[in-house]
Design goal:
- The structure is a single chain.
- The chain is α+β, with helices and mostly antiparallel strands.
- It has two domains: 160 residues, no CATH class; 150 residues.
- The protein is 41% helix and 21% strand.
- The strands form two sheets. Strands 6, 7, 8, 9, 10, 11 and 12 form a seven-stranded antiparallel sheet that branches. It has a five-stranded mixed sheet with strand order 1-2-3-4-5, sandwiched between helices.
- A hairpin with a 2-residue loop joins β9 and β10.
- α2 packs antiparallel against α5 and α5 crosses α6.
- The longest helix is centred in the C-terminal third of the chain and has 27 residues.
- The chain is globular, with a radius of gyration of 23 Å.
- The protein starts with 12 loop residues before the first helix and ends with a helix.
Length: 325
């Protein structure tokens, strides 16, 4: 329950995260509340990997045509904070524009996301540092341990703590009793720990799924794009089809390659399938590892997924090499 009305009540999850970050950072050199100031410096240390030893000057730059936040640190560094579901091309353009607008400055790009439905790995490749709910919770707990008794801070701590507990719902029930949100929280946690992949709702099939990053392999002058996808309790190998591909010249060729994994996968081909992505094989066993009480063993499950993905890659490479020989 909110202690007093505050700005987070009227904002979306990502907007409130960004607004709170801006509010907290403005306390960095404010002597009125030493604990808030210390926590702001702790946040700056996370953003900058502790490379800026002292923040003597911090200015918030407000620009009408920008949705992102810019802070100038010590007149030599630009802290660029972007939030929400932003496309990769937009993130790239935002960073490019900021570098152009602030020549000679060291740009520190941060991407704030609370929904987890983005490709983290691609964002990291652009040079952004991720800031997720778990990172915010760590900053807030630091402030709580210092003894902060500010209504805005405490209310926001409650919000993020509740969100974190909701994101742990996969741990509250045995796997056989999981509901839709259990899988969503599991996929979100998996993405955080793997730093790759994404999850989404597949409307046509009416399910939520988690897909790992694309892989490529060349065979008979064809490039095959495939990936592992988790569909609730099933683990599948997906194959991307281009407009000029047919089941005969692409899927059958890939089926030959994956045949070496027939001890672990059941292959399936639908010659009438015209989808852009098709299921080429399904794992024969349960990929989710459970403990003696029927609850998920997350660490073992994550290792199992990595092991299966590595095994598929190995089988495909071996098949290509053997065919070449």
């Amino acid at each position: 329950m909110m202690r007093k009305p505050n700005f987070t009540s009227w904002l979306s999850s990502d907007e409130s995260q960004l607004a709170f970050i801006n509010w907290l950072l403005m306390w960095i050199n404010n002597p009125e509340n030493k604990n808030l100031s210390k926590t702001a410096k702790y946040l700056i240390d996370y953003f900058t990997d502790s490379k800026i030893k002292g923040v003597n000057n911090l200015n918030l730059v407000l620009e009408a045509d920008r949705k992102e936040t810019i802070f100038i640190i010590n007149e030599t560094n630009v802290l660029l904070i972007t939030s929400g579901e932003v496309s990769l091309s937009s993130l790239k353009n935002i960073l490019k524009k900021t570098s152009k607008d602030y020549p000679g400055f060291s740009i520190i790009p941060i991407y704030v996301n609370t929904k987890h439905r983005v490709d983290f790995k691609s964002i990291l490749k652009l040079g952004y540092k991720l800031f997720l709910n778990k990172n915010m919770l760590k900053v807030l707990k630091y402030g709580i341990n210092l003894g902060i008794d500010n209504d805005i801070f405490l209310d926001y701590f409650t919000i993020i703590k509740n969100q974190d507990e909701s994101n742990q719902s996969y741990n509250k029930y045995p796997v056989k009793n999981w509901i839709t949100h259990s899988y969503i929280s599991f996929f979100s946690k998996l993405q955080e720990e793997l730093d790759c992949g994404n999850w989404d709702y597949f409307k046509n099939e009416n399910y939520y799924g988690f897909f790992l990053s694309d892989k490529k392999i060349n065979f008979l002058n064809n490039e095959f794009n495939y990936y592992i996808q988790l569909e609730y309790n099933d683990l599948c190998i997906k194959l991307k089809m281009n407009n000029n591909d047919t089941i005969e010249n692409k899927a059958y060729s890939f089926n030959y390659l994956i045949n070496g994994a027939s001890d672990m996968f059941s292959t399936q081909l639908n010659t009438n399938n015209s989808d852009e992505v098709i299921t080429i094989a399904t794992y024969n066993e349960a990929y989710i590892i459970i403990n003696e009480n029927g609850f998920i063993d997350f660490e073992k499950t994550m290792k199992n997924i990595k092991r299966i993905e590595a095994y598929v890659d190995e089988v495909l490479i071996e098949a290509v090499n053997n065919y070449s020989e």
